[in-house]
Amino acid sequence: MKTTTRVAVIGGGVVGASALYHLTKLGWSDVMLLERSELTSGSTWHAAGGFHTLNGDTNMAALQGYTIKLYKELEEITGMSCGLHHVGGITLADNQDRFDMLVAERAKHRYMGLETEIVGPEEIARIAPITNIDGVIGALYDPLDGHLDPSGTTHAYAKAARMGGATIETHCMVSETNQRPDGTWDVVTNKGTIHAEHIVNAGGLWAREVAKMASVYLPLHPMEHQYLVTEDVPEIYGRDTEHPHVMDPAGESYLRQEGRGLCIGFYEQPCKPWAVDGTPWDFGHELLPDNLDKVEDSITFAFNRFPVLERAGIKSVIHGPFTFAPDGNPLVGPVPGLRNYWSACGVMAGFSQGGGVGLMLAQWMIEGECERDVTAMDVARFGKWITPGYTRPKVVENYQRRFSVSYPNEELPAARPHRTTPMYDIFSDLGAVWGQQFGLEVVNYFAQDDEPTFEQPTFRRSNAFDATAREVHAVRNAVGINEVQNFGKFAVTGRGARAWLDYIMAGRIPQIGRMSLTPMLSQKGRLLGDFTVSCLVEDNFQLTASYGAQEVHNRWFMQHLSHDVHVRNVSDRRTGFQIAGPNARDLLTASTREDVAAIKFLDVRRMTVGQVDCTVQRVSYTGDLGYEIYCDPMDHRQLWWTLWNAGQPLGITPFGMRAMMSLRLDRHFGSWLSEFSPDYTAAETGMDRFISFKKNGDFIGRAVAEAERATPPARVLVVFEVDAEDADVVAYEPVFIDGTVQGFCTSGGYSHHTGKSIAMALIPREHAHIGKQVEIEIMGKLRSAVQIEPTFDRQGSKMRS
Ligand SMILES: Cc1cc2nc3c(=O)[nH]c(=O)nc-3n(C[C@H](O)[C@H](O)[C@H](O)COP(=O)(O)OP(=O)(O)OC[C@H]3O[C@@H](n4cnc5c(N)ncnc54)[C@H](O)[C@@H]3O)c2cc1C
């Protein structure tokens, strides 16, 4: 056996094999896969082998599309069969909300180039004749849906990898992973120790145990899952063509042809987590005992939807475990806190996602970044706050909701509240309707009097509309207050802090007492963050950015740290409030003895507010006059009472995230992961105005930013007023220009201040000008839209006054 390798991939399921293949495909041939038994000895061998593109996250859907198209390539390279059945599939809708969701998905697919189609009941009966269409409104047809042979496909990946130079060691059990001081790894196996530069954990069902060997916790959990294969069915074997897949979300089932019969699997409500305290090492080639009681209701439902099933005997029951992360997406990328340790696990749909996971991982390892935004599957999207106790109920929730309608305004209830600030009970008493961000409870809006403290999930404007309007008007006409807890915050200190920031950030780094806004770019010029940098004293800076991206940002900082700089993630150590609106200055003046009038836009000051030591920054995401006031969490409530009491004569009103996201639309402020994400460059999104090309020295992404300055990118971010009705833009709706899809929305919503529906979108540069007329597809209808300038305080005089 080889004793040194550049990469040791642990695990020979479909995901490990795909990772290995993609590493060779992108040019690394000194790579090795270690499998404790034979290939496919985890979840992979008993999978139903179905694949599909449908995924609520657009980037995940694109990667699923990549995976499906890859199988032909694999067959061509290796001469092996993946057992492909490209039969197409339909996802049924039996109520309006489910149909709305499919229509919205179809709209997204237009820009992605996916040839899906909305079909009506008659067409469903023609495409999938064993379906009882009673009560069915319509369906989404996807010609790419199909199934394959799980074992054949895994072996095809393995052969293609071997052809690229990879080594595969079976019956090679990894028992320890020990890091050397230089960051490389000793991988201890029953066949000896391998010295590897990098480790990829593709341990599937055992990924938790493999992670533990490196003293990390990866948030995933196995669930039991069951599908049945029937005896021969005349309505199936009598057909000239193979029957397509049918996903029936109402019955929580997926169905396809298997030989001369059918195969049907269920995501049942009385589902069961498996191996709660760890996956046994001696598990692998067996199935779990049948448990038809668990799926009894689902089977009854299926008999009605597919009457042929009632007459078909059951030939076999496949009951096995597979793993989920708390949100159902994979856990991929560099594991925070470890060097040269990569995750490729938590992949619950290995045959839809395995190819995309392998490709992204290989790009990340070899090229330093992925070609698209992989936030949805980045292992760093969960923080240190995550525990097995949190993961388990979330995974159960995810399993149960596998076929549920996902609404854009939905807040899922399991494992909440998990993290709260000292304001939780005070805000709850004021009617807070809570949302969740990165494990933290965050106020969405405040319900009043007899309003329900629950936001109804919907694709249209919700019951939060009136409350949001109230809060927006309070900010624009008096003063609003909300927390700044949900900002990611970093303290950057040390002799080299300024020089380091100048290199890490593309923008200007402020002088003492000042702040600046700056993009953070990748080497390829993609947006990695939109930061506020403030300098309190020389060699001491505070950075703020997205709360949800704090682990991603921290990982980037650690990868690029220099010896004379210290970076600390203080997101939960610095909290406080932002106040915004025309009375914000009076409120702060009434709360401190400092000269508030002397604080100019983008100034930062250390001051006592009431009796609390605070850092005050004059800036506001609402576009209005505003201040962010940071304090220690222990002082949070004291600061609240100071501001709240002083604000009573000034019309102080607490506001939540719904109002904040409406207010920002008036000034066309983009938001992280909507307008600003690794999918886009600074020049595409207008963030280039914050790049300091005058800076001496290099900064990450400079070459690409310079090139974009010389030759502006083809697409550009613009803002439209939409002639909407009761539903606003969410994200990824197609933009039609001259009758064809030429752009897509990044986000949007309702501006309560102006009474307009607003959409932000990326469109070809040549079409971008004020007054440009386009059409945007919202909920299946084409809505006319016109490009506009900011609708509130266009010159920014209120914010700067
Ligand atoms: C009943 C059922 C039906 C399914 N149907 C579908 C479907 O239709 N479509 C779909 O896309 N997905 C389906 N899945 C899910 C699919 O099986 C998984 O997504 C996929 O198999 C995950 O592959 P993996 O490589 O991540 O993990 P695994 O298949 O679990 O592979 C992990 C591998 O790592 C090895 N390993 C672990 N620890 C060590 C160690 N210490 N040393 C060496 N080797 C180690 C194991 O032996 C194993 O071979 C189904 C799952 C089940 C249970």
Main sheet specs: 8 strands, mixed
Stretches with pLDDT under 50, minimum 5 residues? none
Bound molecules: flavin-adenine dinucleotide
- The total count of strands amounts to 37
What gap, in angstroms, lies between the N and C termini? 71 Å
Radius of gyration: 27 Å
Residue fraction in strands = 25-35%
Roughly how much helix do the residues carry, as a percent range?
Answer: 25-40%
Assign the structural class, choosing from mainly alpha, mainly beta, alpha/beta, alpha+beta, or little secondary structure. alpha+beta
Q: How many helices?
A: 21
Mean pLDDT figure: 96
Looking at the structure, what is the overall shape? globular
What does this structure look like?
With 801 residues, the protein is of the alpha+beta class. α2 (58-78) packs across α5. The protein starts with a strand and ends with a helix. It binds flavin-adenine dinucleotide. The site of flavin-adenine dinucleotide has 43 residues, from α1, β3, β12, β16 and α10.
Concise overview:
With 801 residues, the protein is α+β, with helices and mostly antiparallel strands.
How does the SSE layout of this entry go?
Blueprint: E1 4-10, H1 14-25, E2 31-34, E3 50-51, H2 58-78, E4 89-93, H3 96-112, E5 117-119, H4 121-127, E6 138-142, E7 146-147, H5 150-163, E8 167-169, E9 174-179, E10 185-189, E11 192-201, H6 207-213, E12 221-230, H7 234-237, E13 245-248, E14 253-258, E15 261-266, H8 296-305, H9 308-311, E16 314-324, E17 331-334, E18 341-345, H10 350-367, H11 388-400, H12 424-429, E19 432-437, E20 440-446, H13 465-477, E21 479-483, E22 487-493, H14 497-504, E23 515-521, E24 527-537, E25 540-546, H15 550-559, E26 566-569, E27 575-580, H16 584-591, E28 604-609, E29 612-617, E30 626-631, H17 636-647, E31 652-654, H18 657-666, H19 682-685, H20 702-710, E32 715-722, E33 734-737, E34 740-751, E35 756-764, E36 773-778, E37 781-787, H21 797-800
Parallel strand pairs: 1-2, 1-11, 2-8, 4-13, 11-18, 21-31
Antiparallel strand pairs: 3-7, 4-6, 5-6, 9-10, 10-11, 12-15, 12-16, 13-14, 14-15, 17-18, 19-20, 21-27, 22-25, 22-26, 23-24, 24-25, 27-30, 28-29, 29-30, 32-35, 32-37, 33-34, 33-36, 34-35, 36-37
Helix pairs in contact: 1-5, 1-10, 2-5, 2-10, 13-18, 16-17
The chain binds flavin-adenine dinucleotide (FAD).
Flavin-adenine dinucleotide binds next to helix 1, strand 3, strand 12, strand 16 and helix 10.
